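Message: I would love a firmer grasp of how sequence relates to backbone shape in proteins. Thank you; the sequence and its tokens follow:
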Amino acid sequence: MKLTAIKPLVSNPHVYSIVVDDKYLGNISGQDLAELQLVIGQDLDPQILKDLNGRIVQLKYYRDAQRYADRRLRSKKEIRQHLLLKGCDLVLANSIVARLGETGLVDDASFTKAYIHDALLARPLSKRAIKQKLKVKGIDERVVDSSLTDTNYDENKALDEMIERKKSLSQYMNNQPKLFRYLLSQGFSYESIVQRIGRPQVLRRYGGGNLTVGD
């Protein structure tokens, strides 16, 4: 097989299209081109062709990951999952995530701060709820704790805002037990809720067990 053309892309002069036997094979970076020492007219033995195809695949997934990360901030786990869904193998996916981390395009700490900021703009959240949401995205709890400190997160303020929002809704307006259970389910502490709306009211008793209204 003969390397018949090497052409820099108009959109990116640091990336080159490779043509073998007058057929487009794929794109490689300028660094790959130099490392493989490719020249037009070169006969490609099976090993060089294998290496070349490997570089083409790597660049394809790397550029795809770049585009995905450029759309908005992503966690490392999100980038890795995106690549795996595209058919990239795990070893290469981990390598690409590491490279993107080195360039600063993917950074879990920056992602976490931005996520907390945006999430709190949308609705009040407890610290527990924030940690749970970010755990799904692969963020280490220590990174979350650090980001919460850096963003001056105030769980008491979040709880107060949540109570005000829910009290304006008919299903919670005159139903303290239901409001209490909802706040508890959102990860706010029992005592913090009690300090604001009192202990959950008990209206009637059945068979030795307490039943609160609101369902």
Observations:
- The mean pLDDT is 91.
